[in-house]
Amino acid sequence: MNHPTPQAALARRPLPPAVVQALQARFGERFSTSAGVREHHGRDESPFPPALPDAVVFAHSTDEVAAVARLCHDHDVPLIPYGVGSSLEGHLLAVAGGISLDLSQMNRVVALQAEDLTVTVQPGVTRKQLNQEIKDSGLFFPIDPGADASLGGMCATRASGTNAVRYGTMRENVLALTVVTADGRVIKTGTHARKSSAGYDLTRLFIGSEGTLGILTEITVRLYPQPEAISAAVCAFPSMRSAVQAVIETIQLGVPVARVEFVDPLAIRAINRHDKLALPELPHLFFEFHGSEAGVREQAETVQQIAADHGGQGFEWATRPEDRSRLWNARHHAYFAMLQLKPGCRAVTTDVCVPISRLADCVGETERDLRASSLPCPIVGHVGDGNFHVVILVDPALPREMEEAEALNRRIVERALAMGGTCTGEHGVGLHKMDFLVREHGEDALDLMRAIKDALDPKHILNPGKIFRASR
Amino acid sequence: MNHPTPQAALARRPLPPAVVQALQARFGERFSTSAGVREHHGRDESPFPPALPDAVVFAHSTDEVAAVARLCHDHDVPLIPYGVGSSLEGHLLAVAGGISLDLSQMNRVVALQAEDLTVTVQPGVTRKQLNQEIKDSGLFFPIDPGADASLGGMCATRASGTNAVRYGTMRENVLALTVVTADGRVIKTGTHARKSSAGYDLTRLFIGSEGTLGILTEITVRLYPQPEAISAAVCAFPSMRSAVQAVIETIQLGVPVARVEFVDPLAIRAINRHDKLALPELPHLFFEFHGSEAGVREQAETVQQIAADHGGQGFEWATRPEDRSRLWNARHHAYFAMLQLKPGCRAVTTDVCVPISRLADCVGETERDLRASSLPCPIVGHVGDGNFHVVILVDPALPREMEEAEALNRRIVERALAMGGTCTGEHGVGLHKMDFLVREHGEDALDLMRAIKDALDPKHILNPGKIFRASR
């Protein structure tokens, strides 16, 4: 592991009785110190052992969040915003104890501004819930991390997913936020206008801050018209390299693909088993095209030609919704399908992102590492963005497997950084990538981040121990 | 005016002799205290009277910039980064004296990464120069403010222009920066990967910070494939409202227009005179479509139908490059064409941006204000973004005209803020919109901006007196 055991990292002290009394009085049954509730809030999807908060509060409003923040601020109590618990790098672990502030019941779509192609939601709204609630508007929200994450959590980790190549990430798609500051003030960042040059970009500062700078209580995001036509395609390639080269050409030609995903042979085997498909166990690309009827046909034909130029075989279109769904559901289930390759396992998931010109080299050298590993390591990738995940299947009870997984991850990250890339394309830093962040940005840039943290949360009560250490 | 006379705003003190000696020794003829050079660097395109720096330094490298920053930091000397001087809100005025750091000679394209669709440039590279230098690559950089601004300046003001509806603004298109901090350290933000979740978004923090947080010395931006086909169209409408409604429908349908610009009858008159065109003096929309041959035809046909539904007349396509250029050159010259409506005038340019659903109301109510004004006030707008400019033509020597212009601007901004918009869509705050910024965000949000300023530039040497006052 490239970090100290999380639980040992920071000193803990018991909750002050005044805090317990004040929270009990205000929140009643929505304040809990039960072991089960704390256990549930002291973990995420990472393989880390849990680190429990001292108590959990379920908030229903911005005012309640502000009251909790003021109380924690006055008493120096750590405060960790919690959505649905789907983060992957230990973001939610209460390494210094304190309060886990569960926002999952703040799950109302506040206002749909259909003419403006925007919607304002509370942070506990999940991406699937949002799309369900707005589907009659003719609009949709494209950002789709693997899990059915909350929008608050997706802001916190600067999430993306399979549609980012066309629609961008949370960075590009959040217009405005309501934020509760560390000392319990309520501010609004941004406006409902599509663009602005009005002062520092506070919105973007909170996006990706992993709950360490403020607590988001309302979020306004961009929506997009549901495409008139959608078609999907799948194509097998003789090698990973030829598949990646086809993607580079597609993007250089300006074909506005909505999705293009790489799936390696081992991941194909997992998908075949899990979804009862019979794809050849070869490197594959999955495509989706959005546009007019004529537009998606033209895109698919262009991509088919490019694929053929690179040895792509069996390019198969799916325009019927049920065929498309079958294909893309298989892709979306890939994580769970892969977990079934090794019964009882958990996953250490790498998340590097490199300039697309280096993607074939990066994946190719990574494949060589993986062949030497004793662990099953399927690869899936958002290749249009240069982002790929090696899903390293481990038994977390076996230190040898955890060490091997961490060693692989370290090699992959070091390679990506050497190629001008980043240690995390979409999962965030959490507890797990703090050392890599230093390698990526350097201590001087980290000092700027620390200075911002000190300025906005001088007592370091917000999600302490995450992203970077408090000093060099 | 809604702010104190800039020159009176802050105390000035002479340059310390040690600073003069050190700069003379290092920079020789690239250090100047001549009246002409200082005069040139103490103004921008705003109608403010100039406020001269005490000296100007022409930098050639990141190391030189860092050396100047360290010197200014050690001696508490104001330091103002300067590109080509095309800002519009007094950004460059040396209201507290100090050094104007001219970066225009740092104008090298450092590296084109064609496969990655990115390019790294020095801050003095202008947008036209960049597109000229990369044109054989098949790629282009879409962001086009009216002036041939430097990329450093475009980062500083979070610039956009006519292509933002399709390609976004500087906010969406900068991947990485080299930044010299207030105390002369050199940091890198971001990477060459298309997306990242690695820590606080320092890149976005510097974009739009108007030279108050750091000095940009290298900039990596995204490029786009030159479209296979481009077509343009122009269409007259019976009213501004019908034109705007056509734009809303176009965007809601998901037609990926590259540009859609509103031009009001008075601006059409100016353009007709300046560019020898004969467009009817009616509200117009100018369109540009990028895509495949079939794609641009389909887009134009869809938009033609939408325009017809809203009373659009004389929808005229231009697919030949010379016809397109004639049309869009006219639009790009509009600012100068409008200045010629009133010989010897200067312009006070408003820059509000509202949610597109409110655009027709906002422009409509603004038109009523303008009819009551004694000043010529043509309107042009990036309507796909909800951003429009009233170009108020004034004689800056006549206080009555300046006051009337400021009163108009104030009414327009207040209206936009009430509609959920922003006081500045793309020009920035500078000296001119500091009070509006408070109205837009509130003092609590401004306190966060002040805290960030204090953290990154504790001595307040970087472009002092801009964006917000140092305290409430």
Automatic annotation (TrEMBL), chains A, B:
Q: Give the FAD-binding PCMH-type domain ranges.
A: 49-226
Query: PROSITE patterns recorded for this chain?
Result: FAD_PCMH
The record's annotation in Gene3D superfamilies points to: 3.30.465.10, 3.30.70.2740, Vanillyl-alcohol Oxidase, Chain A, domain 4
Q: Which prosthetic group or cofactor does it need?
A: FAD
Q: Name one Pfam family in it.
A: FAD_binding_4
Give the E.C. number(s).
Answer: 1.1.2.4
Q: Which UniProt keywords apply?
A: FAD, Flavoprotein, Oxidoreductase, Transit peptide
**SUPFAM superfamilies named in the record:** FAD-binding/transporter-associated domain-like, FAD-linked oxidases, C-terminal domain
**Family, similarity comment:** Belongs to the FAD-binding oxidoreductase/transferase type 4 family.
Name-wise, this protein is D-lactate dehydrogenase (cytochrome)
The protein's organism comes out as Cupriavidus malaysiensis
